[in-house]
Input
Amino acid sequence: MDKYELMWLENAAIRFVTRMNNKTNELIINTGLWAGDTPIVMDDIKLLARDLNTLNLGDKSKEVIRDVMRNEERVKLEVEKYLWMIEQYNIKLVPKDHKDYPYSWKKLSGMPPLIFARGDTSILSKISRCGSAAIVGSREASRYALYATGQFSSSLASKGVVIVSGLALGTDRKAHEACINAGGKTVAITAGGSDVVYPYQNKDLYERIIEDGVLITELPPGQEVMKQYFPSRNRLISALSDVCLIMEAGMYSGTLHTASFAGNQGKDVFVLPNSIYSDNCLGGLQLLRDGAEVLIDVDSVYERIVHETDIRRAVLKDGLQDEQDGKRDLRRLSRTDPEALSEDDWKTVVCDEISERPKNIDDLCISLGIPFSYLSSLVTMLETEGRIAIERGKYVLTIPNR
Output
């Protein structure tokens, strides 16, 4: 393990054994005492602690720094434990600047700065080119739901789509199995350390995924599965996917968390129609009533995935970086000197905002900070030009924002 990976490991230990979190990290960055090109480690914390009284930080942030200092020895021991387990289980580190770190996560807030993986991490970067689908549902799924899960998973996998799920019993297991059996690639995101087999009944599948797919988690090695980690795991499942397929869900199912995260992230949610007389299906039916799409055939799902991958390919083309830099300059001007932007500039800013995720006009008005009347005029022109469209109440790009 090189020095840079060791720094990330120490940063992970600080975040998981003290009160340090991503918000405090951001506040530390704003002090100007941290270079920003490497993860925060104990040496950085010591520097901050030395000048704590003169820093422009709130009392809570200062107490977090003191807490890290009090736990310096514990952090050191935790790093040693991680190192042993990483070697023992062949665990790989994928920090946010790694070539295999998921591209879609870079576009969303709240994503983990470091993930721990077992298996083929190149599958994560493959998603940018081939697309991905989250397939989730009940742990006690009906025969109908399991049959449909197998059909959709294997069909999408045969088209090169990466299948993402949570390695749970029932639907998740069927999705992973069908994908691997079809010769596809699958990603399992777990709610514990990557060395922890959970549930133990899936040990055989766990080993197959490590061999033929990749298993990832934001939690460090040795971390046991806990109930509070599942919602966080579910947000990563939806964030890694272009579309989210809900195969079966009760009214209080954790699957609904995944669907909710997907909607908030601007992802399309498809729901398999099920019996109105089964309690295990009422959550999915509720999603359909709230506007989710009916899952009927593979082709409609695949078309949506292709649309998303086409946009990504355009964004990732060589030579587009300069254009992206120009867009960032426009965004800065829209805040500091909005009158300096032309009408075409404002159209670019609106399209750039929508490219992050679909938004309704109220969201755009708030995020861009421009008058509603002017924004209405802009989106009307963009619709007329065929550059944006409304889908389920939100504006989406119809062509890549170039």
